[in-house]
Structures are given as structure tokens and as C-alpha cells.
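Write out the 3D structure for:
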Amino acid sequence: MQCIASLPNWFQLPCDCLVVGVPDDWKSASYIGELDASLSGLLTKLLESGDVPTKANTLTMLLAPVGIPAKQVVLVGTGVSSEWNTSTAFRAAGTAAKSVANRRLERVRFVGFTGSPAEQRAAICGALVGSVGQDLLRKEKSLFQPEVYEWVGIEEENIKRAFAIGESVNLARRLVNLPANYLYPESFANEAQIVAQQYKLGIEVWDKAKLESERCGSLLGVARGSVKEPRLVILHYRGGDSASAPIALVGKGVTFDSGGYSLKPTDGMLTMKCDMAGAATVLGIMQAAARLQASCNLVAIIGLVENLVSGDAFKLGDVLTARSGKTIEIHNTDAEGRLVLADCLDVALGFSPAKIVDFATLTGACCVALGNDISGLMTNNIAWQSEIQQAAERFGEYVWPLPMHGFFSEQIVGKVADIKNVGEGRWGGAITAAKFLEEFVNKTPWTHIDIAGPAFLDSPKPWCDAGGSGALVRTFAEMLSGS
């Protein structure tokens, strides 16, 4: 598909659908007046009568309106103008795009989605996300992207940037939505190689033999139960000064998580193809950084395993030796993601990064603490965490910090080994998981992002289909590219 700028006489040009953002103060919007004149005052009558609501994300459809060459007009409420921001822009455009994506269209034109450059990009990303669903393998698709999205009042360069970000969000969503018999460690590594080749990223893939020679005993322990061999993917993007240390992005890639011998119930296991969302997020960010030509250096470490049950699967009470040399008692085989990340973080340290951020669907405890729409932040460096939090707020995604007091570390002290892979009981589980990870970053500034809630939608939103959401790809693409 294409995203392009619309011509000035947008209301006189044919299209399959015209999407119009309608704010509460619609009388002050010049484009509403232009459209209303062509419709012989119909729009004003509908708005004044209250038949067209302006509340955010409400929809009104007009079929074959007389006076303009659009086959359909979709009026989407954008709410209070003073509250227009990147979040409301993303959702309003996504809601409108999703509402008309149930059929094949050639040309859809958007008007009323301006504001700051970041708000414009958010709207374009929202439309790209809203028109792509989880129906990857259905014979009869439920959502279709149009051939062309036109944007009124947005410059071509900003559209191009937004398109790169939106496609990267949808890359992450597609990977999360692929079932585990399609996406497993080797096939994910192949996907990463395709991205690396297309966007000129450096790439190295460690197979099982290489992981063994690198002493990645923690990651390999999790992988033992599956016939699908593990992989570790290292990606490089070099857009900054050659002397500048990279930012390390680390992603948890458990392509299916049965829980191992701490077996999940059926309902809890059904969507566990999504347990590689951290890895998908990192690959999406790397693609976006390359497409946006971000002025920074990045190294990505993606650990890929399946966590299954077999005669050789790791067991409760086992002791694994991580790449760093630290020994780990296994008290729960369903606390496997942190074991994968332990070795990935140690690999990341080998590139002497300026700072590290990891992404992981790590704990249900984070969902209990923050709900399903907010990612948890935990850190050893408040400045790095604050930078991420401020970027997320600026670009319309939701994160919140959790405390990392030293006494939480007492809960993961081992009796047989150096540490154990869970804390004491249910309380503070997201934090004790982060304290476990902190054991593997030394003093490097590091922030852990638990995306267990927002990475996968169990039910659809008005602006996004159920399944993978691509959470935080947009924030980091914007932040790293200096937007």
C-alpha cells in the first residue's frame, strides 16, 4: 500500500472513502466549512442537531453523499480540541480505518488529522494499525488495507516517516500473531535475516552449537524440552558516530511457553505464542531505526527458545549456570523468560553499551499491578527510566515505574545456587523478576520493560484488532530517531 499527501482540492477529488475528523469545536475547523459548502449545508445540520457526535472515536457514516465525489464519508469524533495529542490522534485514525477495512478499497482520504508533526505521525500509524488484523491465515480475510491512504494537510516527508514507523509496528504485530508452528526460533531468526538484508543491518545468528560454546547455560536450559533448537540473534545498526557506544535492545523470544513442568492451564497456554513479543518489539524497533536513519548506534540481542515438556526438559530444583558464571536454582519452570534474558543481557554487556533496555512479556504480576494497557518500568538508573517514560508519554503509549528497593533482592537469594528464579510467594512478582535480571547487567544503566499486559490484546479495541499490538515500537522508533 501507499501513504501520500492529498492535493489541496481534496473535497473535489474522487475517493472510495473520505474520513473526516470532527472536533468538539468543529465550527472553527476550516475543512469542515469547505466540506459543508460542497454538501449544501448538510454537515452543519447534522452536527447542530447532535446526529453526528464529536466524542472521541465515535463514528457516523454517510453513503454516497450528494455534492462530493466520495462514495462514502466517515465522520469520526476527535473529542475536545485542547486534549488532542498523539494518543487521541492514533486512536481516532485507527478507529476510522478499522471501521472501513472490512472491504477492499482503493483510495481512502483523511482530513482533520493535523496538529504537531508527532500527532500527524501518530494518526498515520493509527490508520496503518487499524487496517491490519490478526487474520494472517484465514481464507476469507476480515480486514483489508486500502491501496492508497491520502492525508490532507500533512507534508510528504512526515508521511514517509510515519509510514516507516507504522509498518514496523505491524511487523511486530504480524510476528506475534503467527502461530508457534509457523514461528519458532529458527524461523524467527530467518525473519530477522530478511529485515537485516532489506535495511542493511549487521546480523549474526548463534545456533545451538554456538550457544553451547558461548556457555549460555541459562537459555539452553529453557530450550532443552523442545525439538526446535534455540537461536540467539545479534543485530547491529550504525547510524551514529563510530566512537559512540551503542544502546543495547534486548528481547525475550519464547516462541511458545507451555510453562514446562510448572505447566500452564489450557486457558493460560492458548495465547502463549505471544511470549516472543519482546523479541518482535526489538526487531520492529531495529527496522524503524534503519528506515528512519536514526542518528545513533544500536545493538539488538534476541533470545529465541520454546519452553516445552519432555524427558529432557529442565525441572524444578535443577541448577543452571548462566553465561556470566552465576548459578540459578529453578523453583518454577514457568519463570523461564528471565532465564533467557539472563544470557542475552550478558551478551549485550560484551558490546560495552552506553545503556540497555529489555522488552519482555515477563510476568502476570505486572498485569495485576498495572492492568493490561500499561507496561511496567524497572531500572537501576532513574535518568534512563525517566527518558523512556517521558518519550512514551510524548508519543501516546502507557508505561509506569515500579520500585526497585534493594530488599527485593533478598527474595531471590538461593540456598543451593547463587540465586533462584522466583521470589518468595506471589507478592511483588514483577519486581523480583526485574531484580533477577538486574543481577546480569553489572553497573550499566538498564531499564526493564514488562510488556505482558499491552503486548497482546485478548479482545479487539475500536482502533486495533485483537492479537499483537506492537506496543512501544512507536515510542522507541520516535525516541531513537530524535523526533
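The longest strand covers residues 247-257.
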